[in-house]
Amino acid sequence: MARFVLLLVMVSVATFLLLELIPGDPVDGLLPEGATEEMRQQLIQLYGFDQSLVTRYVSWLGDLLHGDLGTSWQTRIPVATTIAERAPVSLELAVLAMALALAVAIPVGIYSAYRPGGIVDRIATFIASATLATPAFVLAIVLVWVFGVQLGWLPIVGWVPFSEDPFQHLRAVILPVISLAGGECVLFIRLLKGDMMATLQQDHVLSARARGLPTWRILVRHALRQSSFSLVTVSGVVIGRLIGGAVIVEMIFSIPGLGSLVVIAINNRDFITVQAIVLLSALIYLVLNSLVDLAYPLLDPRVRRATT
Amino acid sequence: MTDVVGHTGSALSVPPTVKSADAAPVVKRRRRRRDYGAPLGAVWLGLVVVGAITADWLPLADPNEIGNVFSATPGLGDHLLGTDILGRDILSRCVYGARISMAVGLGATALAMVVGVAFGMAAGYFRGAVDSTISLFVNFLMAFPPLMFLIALVAAMRPSLTNLVLGLALLGIPNFARIARANTIAFAEREFVTASKALGASPFRVLTRELLANVMLPVMSLMLVVMAALVVAEGSLSFLGLGVPPPTPSWGGMLADGRSQMNEHPHLVMIPGLFFFLTVFAFNRLGDWARGRIGRESSL
Amino acid sequence: MSTIEARTASRLLLQVRNLKVWFDTPRGLVRAVDGVDLDLRAGETLGIVGESGSGKSVLSRSIMKILAPSARVLPGSEIRLKGLDLATVSPKQNKHLWGVDLSMVFQDPMTSLTPVLTVGAQLTETLRFHLGLSRDQAEEEAIRLLTLVGIPEPAKRAKQYPHNLSGGMRQRVTIALAISCSPELLIADEPTTALDVTVQHQILNLLERLQADSGMGMVLITHDLGVVAGRADSIAVMYAGRIVEKAPTKRLFSNMRHPYTRALIDAIPRISHPSHTRLASIPGRPPVLIDPPQACGFAPRCPSAQPRCLSETPVLEPTPIDPAHASACFFPLGTPAGDAARENNIKAGVNAAGTAVNAGESTDGR
C-alpha cells in the first residue's frame, strides 16, 4: 500500500514535470501574434508561471484533488469537462474489446491446450502469428479496406452515439473493437494455452480423468481456474492499456475518445490537456493492476489462506 | 447401483475379438515440421538492415524527389513499387524508411538492454535498498500505458530521431531490468558464484565475470521481442505524425500519408503495411526460435 | 476362440499382452514400456516392483488411458478387462467404465486432488456423474465413503479444501474417490511413497481391508519390495520397460532367479544387520530407454553378466519346473550356469560389461 502511494506521488510529479520538458516558454505558444507585453504578464499571472516549481506543484495537486484538472489552453473549457464527455467512449471500446478478446481466447485457449497440434490449435497458431506481426494501425487499415471499402458492409469512419441510433452505433463500433481486441486476444490465447497445458499434465487432472469424468467438466472445473493466473494478471495491464492507449484506433476511426483527444491536444500544443489524460490513464493503469492482486484468492483457495 | 452394473454389462457385451480399425494406433514418428520461419525471417531482416545501411549507394531514386508523374500502379516505368501521390518513389522511401525502423529497433533496444540489464543485475545482486530503489523506478516506468507514455514524452520534447530513440529505450528498460533481476537472483545462489565470492572477488567482478553470461541468455531471446515491440511503437508515433519530422521517410508516415487515397490506390498503404508485417513477423519468428533453443539448452 | 481360452479369460480380471508404449521426445523414441504381459485374477493383488523410470507408472497410466499426448501405444498391444479389449472402447463411448470398473490411486496426495474444489464437491461430482445420484444422496454417500476410509468428522471434512487436510488424510480421500463407484480393479501407483512412514502402514492396511470387503482386484505398484511382500498374491519385477521376473509372491522370495530381483531384496535394510552396516545398493542407474541396443538392460549393473547378455535380449520364459514362475535371464540364479557365471565374475572382479563386482555384493558392500 505504501508502495502504491509512493508510485502515485512519483507519477503525479512526473506528469507535472511533463510541462517543464516542453522546450521554449509555454507562454509564447499561447499568445496570439502581436500580443503586447501587458497581455503576456497577464497570462503569466493567470497560469502562475511566475511562481516556483514546488509551489506550482502543490497548488496543482491541490486542484487535482478537488477534481480541477485545469483549463484547456486551447478551448478555455475545463479539462475535466472534456474528459468526462470523452471517457465513456474510450471505456466502452475498452470493455467491448476486452470482452471480445476473452470470449474468443478462453474457449480457443482451452481447446488448443487440450488438443495441442490439433486443427483448432494449428489454425489458432497460424492466425496468432499473423496477428501478432500486424501492428494495430495496420490491422485497422486492412480491416477498413476489406470490410469498409471493398465489401462496404461497415462504416469506415464516424461515430454514432448509442442514444442516437443503437444499431448504427453498433455498426460503428465493430471494426474498432476488432482492431483493438486482435492483438490482446492472441496474447490471451498464448498465456491460457501455456498454463492450461501445464495444468492438464498435473496429477489432479489425471486423477479426474482416471475417475472417468467428462472432458469438458475436467477442463472447466478442474483445470481452468488454476490456469488463469497469467491471464488475470495480464488482463489488468491490458484493460488499462485499452482505456488509455486506444490512441491509434480512435484516430483511424475518428472516435471521440480520450485517445483522439490526446492527439488533437498535442497538435494544438494544448499540453495541460495532454497532462491530464496521461495522469488519468496512469491512475487507471495503477489501480487496475492493484485490483488484479485482489482477484487471486478467488482463483485459488490456497492463496486465500496465505493472505489472511 | 443397478445402473452401473447395466453399463458394465453392456461394455462387456462387445465381442472381445472385434477390433476397430483405430483400435491400435500406428506408431509413427511425429514429423518435426521444418521451421522455415526463422531462417526466412533472418534473411528478411538482413535485407532490411543492409538496405538501410547502404541505401545511399543503391540504385534508388531520391526518396524525397518530387516527381511530376503520379504512377499509381506498381511495376510500371522507373518505379518498381509505384510512386506516392507526390510522385516520390515508394521503394526508395521504404528502403530509406527502414533506416528509422532499424535505428529504433536496434539502437533503442540496445540502449534499453544495457541500462535495463545493469539495473536488473544490480538489483538482483545487492538486494536491499538498491533493489527497492531500482524496483520502484521500474514500477514507475511501468505505471503508464506504454503508448500514452511515449506520446506524451515525445510530444513534449521536440520530435527528432535522438529523442525518439531515448523515449523508446525508456519504454524498453523495465522488460530487461525485470528479467535480468530474476535471473541474477536465481544464479546468485549457485555454487560457482558462492565460490567466486569466497575467493574474494569484488561484486563488479562477480557480476561481469560470473553472472553476466548466464543472465544474457534469457535476455537475448527477450531482445528480439522488444525489438519487434519498439519497431511497432515507432510506427505508431510516425503514423500519428509524432515521429521523425517529414520529409524524412518512415513506414508509419507513409501509411498515414497514403490513407486518404486508400480507396483508389490501396498500394499506398498496403506496401508500407507489408513492410511492417514482414519485419515484425521476422522478429517474432526469430524470437520463438531463440526461446526454443534456449529452453532446450537449459533443460539439458 | 476356444472354450478353454474363453474360460481362462473370464476368470482373469486384467490381462495385458505385449504392451508397448513409446514416447516421442526431442531426443528420440523412449521405449517406456516394451512388451509387457500381465495377468490378474479377480479379488487378487498383483505387485509391480521396479525402480523409478522402469515404466511402471506408464503401465498403470496406459491401463487408465491417461497417457501424455506424446505417448504412443504400439499396435499389437492388448489390455483386457474381463476379456474386453480396452483399445476398442474410448472413455467417450463408455462413460462409466473408467472411474467405475477401473480406478486408480495416485502417488502424491498433495497434488492428486483438485485444489480449488472441496473434498465433498469432488466426491459428489464423481458419484452423481457415474451413479446418477441426487445431490442429497450423493452427499450422504460421500460422508459414508469418508467414514469408510477412516476420516474422523467426515461431514466437516467434506466442506474443506484439500489443503486443509494432512497428507495421510488426503490419501484417504483419494482412496475414497477411487472406490466410490465400487471398482472391480483398483490400481494403486506408489500409494504410500509420499507419506510418512507411520501413515504408510495405515494406508496399506486400509487398502487391504477395502479389498477384502469388496473383492476387487488390485494392482499395487511400488519401488519397495517390502511393501508388496506380505500383501500381493503375485509379484512382477519390472526393469527398463520389461518384466524381468514374475511369480507368486512366496515362490519369488524363496526361489528368485533374476539377479535384479536379488539386488532389490538386498537393497531392503534389515533390522537383523548390525547397525552401521553399509546399505547395499545397485551400482549404476537404470538405462536410458532411447533406442536400446540388443542386450539385457540390466547387464551393465549385473554381477552375473556374461558376453551373451550384451548382445542378446533375454525373453521372459517360464522356468522348466514351475510354469507360474517366469524370468528373463540367460544365467538365472540357482542354476548351474548362473552360479558359474557369477563365480567367474567375482573371481575376475569385473563383469562382462566392465563393472566391478565385489565378492560381498550379495550381502553387504564393503
List the helices and strands and how they pair.
The complex is a heterotrimer of chains A (308), B (300) and C (366).
Chain A (H helix, E strand, L loop, with lengths): L1 H20 L4 H5 L6 H11 L5 H13 L13 H36 L4 H14 L3 H15 L15 H35 L2 H8 L4 H10 L4 H17 L1 H6 L5 H10 L3 H29 L1 H7 L1
Chain B lengths: L1 H11 L24 H18 L35 H37 L1 H14 L4 H11 L4 H28 L2 H8 L4 H37 L11 H8 L8 H33 L1
Chain C lengths: L2 H9 E14 L2 E14 L3 E5 L6 H9 L6 E3 L4 E4 L2 E2 L16 E4 L13 H13 L3 H14 L5 H5 L8 H13 L5 E5 L7 H18 L2 E6 L2 H5 L4 E6 L2 E7 H6 L4 H8 L50 E2 L7 E2 L8 H13 L18
Parallel strand pairs in C: 3-9, 3-10, 7-8, 8-9
Antiparallel strand pairs in C: 1-2, 1-4, 1-5, 5-6, 10-11, 11-13, 12-13
Helix pairs in contact in C: 3-4, 4-6, 6-7
Question: How would you portray this structure in words?
Answer:
With 308 residues, chain A is mostly helical. Chain A has helices at 2-21, 26-30, 37-47, 53-65, 79-114, 119-132, 136-150, 166-200, 203-210, 215-224, 229-245, 247-252, 258-267, 271-299, 301-307. In chain A, helix 6 (119-132) packs across helix 8 (166-200) and helix 14 (271-299) crosses helix 15 (301-307). With 300 residues, chain B is mostly helical. Chain B has one domain (79-298): MetI-like fold (Orthogonal Bundle). Chain B is 68% helix and 0% strand. Chain B is elongated, with a radius of gyration of 27 Å. Chain B starts with a helix and ends with a helix. Mean pLDDT of chain B is 76; it is low at 1-31. Chain C folds into 2 domains: 4-239, 3-Layer(aba) Sandwich (Rossmann fold); 289-366, no CATH class. In chain C, strand 5 and strand 6 form a beta hairpin. In chain C, 47% of the residues are buried. Chain C has helices spanning 3-11, 56-64, 119-131, 135-148, 154-158, 167-179, 197-214, 225-229, 249-254, 259-266, 336-348, and strands at 12-25, 28-41, 45-49, 71-73, 78-81, 84-85, 102-105, 185-189, 217-222, 234-239, 242-248, 317-318, 326-327. In chain C, the strands form 2 sheets. Chain C has an 8-stranded mixed β-sheet with strand order 7-8-9-3-10-11-13-12, sandwiched between helices. In chain C, strands 1, 2, 4, 5 and 6 form a 5-stranded antiparallel β-sheet that branches. The chains are: A mainly alpha (308), B mainly alpha (300), C alpha/beta (366). At the A-B interface, helix 1, helix 6, helix 7, helix 11 and helix 12 of A face helix 4, helix 5, helix 8 and helix 10 of B.
